[in-house]
Amino acid sequence: MISWRVSDRILRILAYVLGCDRKSLLFDYIQGKNKYKQQIEMTAPVITEVLPSDGPFCESLFRISFYLPKVNQANPPPAEGLHIQKWKSTYLAVRQFSGFVTDYNVGVEAAALEASLADTVWSAAIKKSQKDETTSVYLVAQYNSPFEFSGRVNEIWMLVDLEDELLPV
C-alpha cells in the first residue's frame, strides 16, 4: 500500500486523491511520477485513515492509501513524500454505506458502527486497538470511481485487537 499523510478536511483530501487537484501526490504517483517512472494501475478501495485532533482548534490528520497491484508489491516504486505501508493480517469491524463520502455522513456512519458494537466484546477489542495515540479511530474505504454516481459503495472500518480467546476455533 502507498500512503500520503496530510492535515485537512475529508472532502478536500478526496479532491487531492481523485486528481481534481493537480497537487495530489498519490495521483501523480500512479501516473508515473515515481522513482521508476512507472505507471501503476488504480486499485480499490481508496482508504482514508482518520486520526482525530485532540482539541477544538486542532486539525485532524488523514492518511490516504492506495493498494498497490500485485505486480508492484515486491518492489514498489519509491516517491518523495509518500510512504510504503505493509499491513499484517488485521481484523476489522465494518459498516457499509452508499452515496458520496462527506464529512457529515462519515461521522454519522462511524457513530452508528460504534453504537452497534456497544457493550459487546468487539467494543472492548476496538478500544484496545486504539490505545496507541497514533492509531486511527476509524478508516473510510471507498470502492468507486469519482465518476460513478449511482451504486456507490463505501465502508467505515474500525480496527479490532482480538485476544486469543475471542478468535474463532
From TrEMBL:
It comes from the Eukaryota. Pfam families: SOUL (PF04832). Gene3D superfamilies: Regulatory factor, effector binding domain. InterPro entries: Reg_factor_effector_dom_sf (IPR011256), SOUL_heme-bd (IPR006917). Belongs to the HEBP family. This is Heme-binding protein 2-like. The lineage of its organism: Eukaryota, Viridiplantae, Streptophyta, Embryophyta, Tracheophyta.
